[in-house]
Amino acid sequence: MDPGYVTLEQVAEHAGVSLATASRVINGSTRQVSQRLREKVEASAHELGYLANASAQTLARNSSSLMGLVVHDIADPYFSQIAAGVTRYAEELGLVLVLGTTNRSTQAETRIISALRSHRAKAIVIAGSRTTSEESDARLAKEIEAFGRQGGRVALVSQATLPADTVTPNNHSGAAALAQHLVAQGHRRFAILAGPPNLRTARERLDGFHCALSAAGLELAHHNVVHGDFTRDGGYESTRRLMALGTDATCLFAVNDVMATGAIAALRAMGKTVPEDLSVAGFDDIPTLRDLTPSLTTVRLPLEEMGERAAALALDSDHHGEPRVVSVEGTVMARESTAPPRN
Amino acid sequence: MDPGYVTLEQVAEHAGVSLATASRVINGSTRQVSQRLREKVEASAHELGYLANASAQTLARNSSSLMGLVVHDIADPYFSQIAAGVTRYAEELGLVLVLGTTNRSTQAETRIISALRSHRAKAIVIAGSRTTSEESDARLAKEIEAFGRQGGRVALVSQATLPADTVTPNNHSGAAALAQHLVAQGHRRFAILAGPPNLRTARERLDGFHCALSAAGLELAHHNVVHGDFTRDGGYESTRRLMALGTDATCLFAVNDVMATGAIAALRAMGKTVPEDLSVAGFDDIPTLRDLTPSLTTVRLPLEEMGERAAALALDSDHHGEPRVVSVEGTVMARESTAPPRN
DNA sequence: CACCGTTGGGAAAACTCTTTCCCAGAGTAG
DNA sequence: CTACTCTGGGAAAGAGTTTTCCCAACGGTG
């Protein structure tokens, strides 16, 4: 009856040494083992095809080689980019990455984090903007705190209200820079697809854009700001509503690229051409969207790098003070979807 | 000194019962526990904030709640779609998903699988076409076999040479159906961006397309088939090479959507318009690419569903015979990037 | 009322490692 | 030559669960 795996005890026996010695050979412990025994153990391990039992190791060491990543939706290119960065960093350190998706449910989020806690994960990266709801934040903060007491560390991507290291895009300044660019192009009246009203990221981009307009002495008409889902279809839908009400705007700013994509599709369906009838700009610079026609004016965010840096923060175990905040600047990518307005 | 976690023993003590009883209450075992004790234990567990140690459970049960997913690149929308399907299924069953990315290295692949083996994962889904290299397949087959002996199960997405359950798109028939559609539109001379020569998926799509042309009595000129990377940039590059050599084709078939995207970009850069100067078709129907202009004629694959079905196969533990193969048909999506050729 | 089967509780072994602690032997200094 | 310090090996004690095995109590049958 082949159980399918070999234990360290069998390796030790096969090599004619004690369990302790075998253990010391397999994982280079601080203790020395003589060359002779070392070779014997290594030979036996190889011959028997020994593979350590990770759970037993985790239990004995009380620390695992797992790292967690929590995203809203892995099929969303925004998150899959970040995931690629986190993955790369984890792989480099020989860590195993656990992926949890929340579908924007805070309940799922706490469930996932508690699962990671139960697995004694080393660190967790939580990506994805949070709603501004106080009460779900409190629940999450409690989980994070519990995780910290266990010796785990958390880093966040693009959200700064929780007590943990954070990598956050400077949404405010990115949106402001975009606004300045558009104003310089000659636009004076803007419409905004502002996404969900309580989503922090969406809010910051809206605010940044708004501020820059104010600074330029321009007003943003209330009826030109429409809220909707943070998705392609949300952008489509919001644009239809905006146009149905009529707008005098010459430029439409969607607070992320996928919404901008939906907006362009909606405008095309209505027989409007971009940028001739209306300019459209987005935010994020999603790689898969770079080949849209017209190509999208947007703000580039180094998403993969952000993931990597968040992973690095989460795994930097010798920092123990105030949460650190790394702010990442976006750069305006001027492309075809915006053009000076026709007078 | 707060260790940060509560053990089952502490719960048992707090509730005034034995460790065995506490264990039986927390995970509904087959054994009954009286209502009275059950409530006491539950109350204690809740009061102390008990969270089971997953490693200890895995060790004791010799079976974990982990499920593995192996992809080439999580930022590639093809894989992130599949990942979304697998995730959904895993989450439904309360399993924790471990994500491994190989960057198309078979070495990384075996490393990841052995890590999953060491964690006593329940099942693994391996997504992504394999190269047709015999020798790396053999190594992988050995890992999979070892995993099976441990009681784990593997399912593959889109590759059928290994001895494990497989969900595979019918690349051959999908490409053939696409070819038929294009021939019916009036095209007679085709060029193909065939991807890497040794990549199974690419090969099958090429073959299917080729077969259908032959059946229609059409030839495929050798110089009209160009190989290159399976990526957006590979498509761009391949198209440039194709056009530099000159082609008489009226329609260009790229064996996946991202390559088709690169092709359209390259053509545009050369001042050619699609579909007027040249029709372009792809394969996969990546959602984020649906808003391209012109919209892409392609073959739709239900990627998320494929991921889900693969997960289901991998977790269906009462099947123990020959590997099963689930074939998924693609459907031709006729859109704007192809049009009847101008005579 | 004796016997038997069932129910529910607890003690303890098992799972596979890591690490502490102890000990023998070798080397070194006084 | 003794005493002391290293060095490297092994026995055994954990780590936190699950599960087997044993036992007491109870209810029903003849």
Q: Any chance you could write out the topology, listing elements then pairs?
A:
The structure is a homodimer of 343-residue chains.
Chain A: H1 8-15, H2 19-26, H3 35-48, H4 54-61, E1 66-71, H5 77-92, E2 96-101, H6 106-118, E3 123-127, H7 134-149, E4 153-157, E5 165-169, H8 171-184, E6 190-195, H9 200-215, E7 225-227, H10 232-245, E8 251-254, H11 257-269, E9 279-281, E10 298-300, H12 303-315, E11 325-328, E12 331-333
Parallel strand pairs in A: 1-2, 1-3, 3-4, 4-5, 5-11, 6-7, 6-8, 8-9
Antiparallel strand pairs in A: 10-12
The structure holds a DNA duplex (30 and 30 nucleotides).
Explained architecture:
The structure is a homodimer of 343-residue chains. Chain A has 12 helices and 12 strands. Chain A is an alpha/beta fold. In chain A, the strands form 3 sheets. A 6-stranded parallel beta sheet of chain A has the order 2-1-3-4-5-11, sandwiched between helices. A 4-stranded parallel beta sheet of chain A has the order 7-6-8-9, with helices on both faces. In chain A, strands 10-12 form a two-stranded antiparallel ribbon. In chain A, helix 5 (77-92) crosses helix 12 (303-315), helix 6 (106-118) runs parallel beside helix 7 (134-149) and helix 8 (171-184) crosses helix 9 (200-215). The longest helix of chain A is centred in the first third of the chain and has 16 residues, at 77-92. Chain A is elongated, with a radius of gyration of 26 Å. Chain A starts with 7 loop residues before the first helix and ends in a 10-residue tail after the last strand. The model of chain A has no long low-confidence stretch (mean pLDDT 92). At the A-B interface, helix 4, helix 5, strand 2, helix 6 and helix 11 of A face helix 4, helix 5, strand 2, helix 6 and helix 7 of B. Strand 2 (96-101) of chain A pairs antiparallel with strand 2 of chain B.
